[in-house]
Fold these 2 entries.
Entry 1:
Amino acid sequence: MTATVVLGLAWGDEGKGRVCDALAADAGYVGRYSGGNNAGHTVRVGDEEFKVHLIPSGIVREGVICTIGNGVVVNPQVLEQEVEALEKRGVEVRSRLKVDGRAHLILPYHIRLDSHREKALGKAKIGTTNRGIGPAYEDKVSRVGIRVQDIFDEGILRTKLKAALREKNAIFEGIYGEEPFEVEELASYLLSFRDLLSPMVDDTGARLRRALDRGEQVLLEGAQATLLDNDHGTYPFVTSSNPSIGGACVGAGIPPRYLDRIVGVTKAYTTRVGDGPFPTELFDETGDRIREAGNEYGTTTGRPRRVGWLDLLAIKFSARLNGITHLAITLLDVLSAVEEVKICVGYEVEGRSTDEFPMSQTDLHHARPVYKTLPGWQEDITGCRMRGDLPEAAQEFVGFVEAEVGVPLCMISVGPEREQAIVEKIGA
Ligand code: IMP
């Protein structure tokens, strides 16, 4: 009875897919619990690179059953494209992918609303991925969402679409001067996914609970990350779901007592896409060097990511909030590109010093980082497979972060290939 959750400690793109892939070797089940196709996981197997946005990255492991939980928002068109793209490359998906019947659907009007909202915000925009994520979750909470199971009851589907469109069409026509959406057109669009979805629809929570009761290993793959959490993140510059640990229980339908291992993932530095505060952001040549060495361009949108030093205040806040049991550090090799390495160990906020990640949005916007500087290592570490293989300066870096966060490291990635990692024992 072991469920492991892998979640991000900062603003996403920490390389969770990579960590999941390493841990999925022992798992029979890999599930997503929140977000939608705003996520992007890249997994490399040999010369092949797989990019997935909605389907759990565990799908590239033969025999693993993958679940898209009730807490995920599903764009059926994207699901279809991903299934087809993976199957074209020889990955069997349909027999191994289960989608919860309670998961909400992302519809074309959500995507259109997302882009209108961002335009209306002007300079205060969130910088969303424009995938309709926020509006789909809004509908879920407002109880006018359309769920996967609704596709299988045409009468209900039309009634729900009518209710969902009542206010939205008034907005499209009245505010944006656009054509309204038609119930019939949307109904036939959704019905066209019946054949794809019908073998996949499932009570994924019940499936995972049964597997856990049989003693099988379940891995829950976080999307986005803790500082993008709608409750605990840097609101309003957040996503519309709960990527942090509570969201894992709700969005996968697994009670907390099953969660034995919670792996928090951080890069050896920090990145952020979209807008919002980022105290350790670099605007100089060092930032450019890290961006290039780490290929820091979004998997989903292709946007250049904002880059900065590792922020221990943020990481420790997230580690405590999620109660992580293990830490994974990714992309350590990228820091080989710089002469010296900085770690943020405090903030100066309006003349005050603090070592706590501030709750106040105003304080976070005014926070100036206080750094500890460590020597760099400037050598190729991609061949290291044990911590002792790392140059002394790199050992000092990971040892310092591990001691500060206060939980053992279970993985350090030192290169993009599957085997380019130092994997430490995570326990039985
Ligand atoms: P949304 O999730 O598309 O509504 O975007 C809200 C915020 O979350 C924006 O700042 C996005 O850039 C950010 N975001 C959403 N998904 C990801 C992700 O997978 N990685 C990093 N940032 C993300």
Entry 2:
Amino acid sequence: MEKKKFYITTPIYYPSAKLHIGHTYCTVAADTMARYKRLCGYDVMFLTGTDEHGQKIENIAKEKGVTPIEFLDNIVKGEKGILDLWKLMNISNDRFIRTTDDYHCKSIQKIFKKMYDKGDIYKGSYKGKYCTPCESFWTESQLVDGKCPDCGREVHDAEEEAYFFRLSKYAEPVRKLLEETDFLKPASRVNEMVNNFIKPGLEDLCVSRTSFSWGIPVDFDPGHVVYVWVDALFNYMTALGYLNDKYDDCDKYWPADVHFVGKEIVRFHSIIWPAMLMSMELPLPKHVYGHGWLVINGSKMSKSKGNVVDPYILAEHFGVDALRFFLLRTFPFGTDGNFSNELLINTINIDLANNLGNLVSRTCAMVEKYFGGTLPAEKEFDTADDDLIGLASTLRDKYEAEMENYQFQNALEEVFKVINRANKYIDETMPWALAKDEGKKPRLAAVMYNLLETVRICTTLLSPFIPESAEKIFDYIGACDGCRVWEKANVWGSLSQTVSVKKGENLFPRIDAEKALAELEAIAKEQKKEALPELETEPLLSENVDFDTFCKSDLRAVKIKACEAVKKSDKLLKFTLDDGTGKDRTILSGIHKYYEPEQLVGKTAVAILNLPPRKMMGHESCGMLISAVHTEKGEEKLHLLLVDDAIPAGAKLC
Ligand code: ME8
């Protein structure tokens, strides 16, 4: 019989910077879903990739002095790039698309031409607001406080000849799709789309640009490049071979079963995407699922805030499976989740180390100890086992209902109810007491079998979440290949009655929270520093000073005759200066952090002399020494302005 098909996608990521834990969240969720469907026997196509065109990429490459493709290749294929990250996270995508791939570009040109020939794309002139980082056009009314409604950054005026897509024509069918079907999930996202975008009136969408060149050229009108979202959205079809010869799976897998996307791009996927597909007279994807963001203390991760969380570091510290598990166990998929290292460590310690890890290691250790590793055939089952057996045998159905609804957290909750029940079952049956009585060996064997069987069922259902660890657990409990499968996950008694266990390494060692947090803190500090600009100077003042006012400042060369630290102050140095008048002048300066007194004696500095005297730490300071200040990697640096010693004391600076 032909297998049922399941086609799932992640968004294609902008390779404008290294990916963070938020991107990893979506990809891990999609991977878990793909693995779950494969487990259920589906023929799965799982697609991810990168969205490589647009002004932002062009700008970054220019800043770095490389070509866009050199920049992109490094971030996609380079060390610790996107491909490396997905390999590390054990992402089982069947295909990876880069929108700079030749076959994709050619398909997009054909798609653009088809919509043009149909009259759904027409030429006009664009006047509006453009947000460069988001590659988004906005109308005045869509702006929030005059800024981009998505990212809150500045937008700028843009006017140019451009092609438009007749989005307005599809307002009604798209509204119906959203309001009358379950196309967009979770249902809570529907109102936002209809009220904020469709009801105010859908305007036609500008779908070409002429002000930059890093995009797919409109082949029948050189100078125009295709708007990056048209290019990006159709990746879901070109990657199957739509209007190209690279692949041949479009009939097989299209329409997609689900596109997983973050909430800020639901608008593109639930309005623009179906409208363009309607225009092309193509079937619509079955669902778009708009998931929430991982936030830090309530705000979005961003490089500029210096709060991005690096998945490499977490995976190195805690293991890939632990990280995958945490992401889906802790946060409901549809809403935002507040990420913290404490939460991560807690989840690992409670669920993986205490509950799952302990159950597996205790059970295997007991089978080793009491039966030399192999269970005897003779067993004595009891009604006291019924509760655990009942729960474990019906787990698959509950889990399936949650997974079909993309409720990963709830699916795991069901599994952990059974794991916790099994741990309680150990306390209730007290195997250590049974072991003392030779006559109770058959009962002890039954208890061990029940535990191993429960572990087998739970492991099957955990395998999409923690694939590597699941395989290890199966090996430890001696599960044969035939009993690791979905069809046996609700069949109690599938494990051989005389199974042999194997003791192995501790799968999820308990984490010393204090130590791990301190290490992560130190790494984060270092990273924050690295993210800071190399060199920063104060912005120039925009206000002018009139010449006469400036001339009132008495700037002079001064010779440093003596210099000492001021008692009880860690900042102040006291300078005795020759200002050319023949009388010593005292100036105090808060620069001890940068200089030792003896370094400066004999040097010629610059001071402003006609400031009113100021008392500091009991000394009177008559003037101010001039220094140059700037910031290097976030640290303030200062250099006392020293001039040529040939300049005599008292020389006026003008
Ligand atoms: O939007 N938590 O690319 P992108 C959860 N190229 N998800 C997050 C997140 C966070 N903190 N930060 C980002 C694009 N994401 C387009 C997509 S698809 C045809 C084109 C998610 O790299 C974000 O919500 O900016 C989005 O779904 C995905 O990462 C890609 O973001």
